[in-house]
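Standup notes
- DV: blocked on the single-chain target, sequence here:
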Amino acid sequence: MYDGEWKNGVRNGTGKLIYATGNTYEGPWVEGKQHGEGIFRFASGNRYEGQYANHLKQGYGIMYYANGNLYKGGWHKGVKGGQGKLHTSEGNTFEGVFEDGKKNGEFKIYSDLEEHPFCFPKYKSAVYEMDKMEDSSTWWREYREGVGAA
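- DV (later): unblocked, structure below
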């Protein structure tokens, strides 16, 4: 269901679309496509606030994930792309360049956990027994490689 402006029979201007899936988009439309600063709410509980171009996330945006994770940074053709920061619900932050939605290249990894040691359970086995940690690592398409410095 769409509530908003139309031009020549297509969505054009400001409007809100509620999809059959329960997802909603609220923001500007150009020739029937999401284009400009908008908010997309997913039925899953995720929420994106940021720029769109030709119906895709493009430019700067913030994704609030239902699991508590948060991504702030660049988007390209609908996925994370360019400089960004991914804050996890576990208290870890990955800062660097994303490509095709994945970590790619050099990344800073840090944590402010005060009660628990820092750990990368999904990546190479690395446990740091300190309250605050910063690591500079290299990533290739979501896989950690090389030597990190803590």
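- Follow-up: Confidence is low (pLDDT under 50) at residues 114-137.
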